[in-house]
Amino acid sequence: MPTVLIASDKFKGSLTAAQVAAALTAGIGRVSDATVVTVPVADGGDGTVEAAVSAGFEKVPVSATGPTGEPVETAYARRGETAVVEMADVSGLWRLPEGRREPLTATSRGLGEVIGAALDAGCTQVVLGIGGSASTDGGAGMVAALGGRLLDAHHDDLPDGGAALAGLDRLDLGALRSRMEGITVTVASDVDNPLLGGRGAAAVYGPQKGASPEEVAQLDTALAHWADVVEEVTGRDDRHHAGAGAAGGVGFGAVAVLGASIRSGIDLLLDLVGFGAALEQLTPDDLVVTGEGSLDEQTLHGKAPAGVAAAAAARGIPVVAVCGRTTLDADRLRGAGIHAAYALTDIEPDPQRCFDEAATLVERLGERLARERLVTTEAAETGATP
């Protein structure tokens, strides 16, 4: 019997990656004796910590500052001296009280507080998943939480938020540098935008965080001043660094101030959760199942299913995907290395039921793909082919 490696991302808002894997395993097991191995995955956005925990990391609870200053309960994942920190869970859009966007004042401070908690616990390797942020502050809040002093002309601490950076007069990184000595930071992100300009953090991502055209211009100007001051203090200009514009400029703050490197989110997370090691055990007679809630054009640009499919295709192992819905035709799927997609909307046309009954429907998709792609229990008993 073949081995099935399930490496799906979450179905956002309805199932975690681990729940998707469990439902598929149950469905496949009802009609096939195939060996099923599960490696829940993520791409650096929301669900990153849960994927790490599913791979054997310890979940460490932390209290931190939310994007508009309210306290939130979050966590990081730890294994040995490595900490996986997820920005979406502490400073993400979903953390905004009542969903009210605050583009000028939202902060990345909580992200820095979670990093600090991991450092205080003895971690020396930090992986930052920075997708899904609510802020456009260039990582200034993160820097302040780690000991940086951002002072105005009156030597007072700046308030949080991107707009306040226009009033930055002096940056003191002495305490931060002491705290970060010997620490390695790696950012998991597939965004290649620079910090400023038409492809920058404010212009591209500001509107989805609630910024009007006037506020986008205000934030871009403030971020430019932030970059100028950082360059004066550090002697390096990272505003054009690919990925500096990620997460409202947190990419810039991480690279320019924390000395971080940026890696492809999905490649980094696949390494962390052990996908490569699991894949090495398969042959072309086996099957990889990946997926996410919406399989669409964004999937093809650094999302988890694309990374899983590329890695499997390099070893000649067939890949199918499960999803809530797909907008990709067969040619686009094949071009991404995915042989077929199994969508909840194929078996349940009501979108609300797809959302509410996702686990049950994913189990049915597991049964369906097993019948179509694997030797079923009944076929094995009769010697027939599926």
Task: Describe the fold and architecture.
The protein has 386 residues and is α/β, with parallel strands linked by helices. The protein contains 17 helices and 13 strands. The chain has two domains: 1-39 and 274-291 and 299-317 and 358-386, 3-Layer(aba) Sandwich (Rossmann fold), CATH 3.40.50.10350; 48-265, Glycerate kinase, domain 2 (Alpha-Beta Complex). 40% of the residues lie in helices and 19% in strands. Helix 1 packs across helix 16 (358-373). The chain is elongated.
The total of helices stands at: 17
Mean pLDDT: 94
Strand content: 15-25%
Strand order, biggest sheet? 3-4-5-6-9-10
For the termini, the CA-CA separation is 12 Å
Q: Into which percent range does the helicity of residues fall? A: 25-40%
What is the CATH fold-level name of the largest domain?
Glycerate kinase, domain 2
What is the H-and-E element order?
EHEHEEEHHEHEEHEHHHEHHEHEHEHHHH
Q: How many β-strands, per DSSP?
A: 13
Low-confidence stretches: 379-386
CATH superfamily of the largest domain: Glycerate kinase, domain 2
- What's the shape? elongated
SS-derived structural category: alpha/beta
User: Main beta sheet: strand number and arrangement?
Assistant: 6 strands, mixed
The number of domains is 2
Top CATH class of the largest domain: Alpha Beta
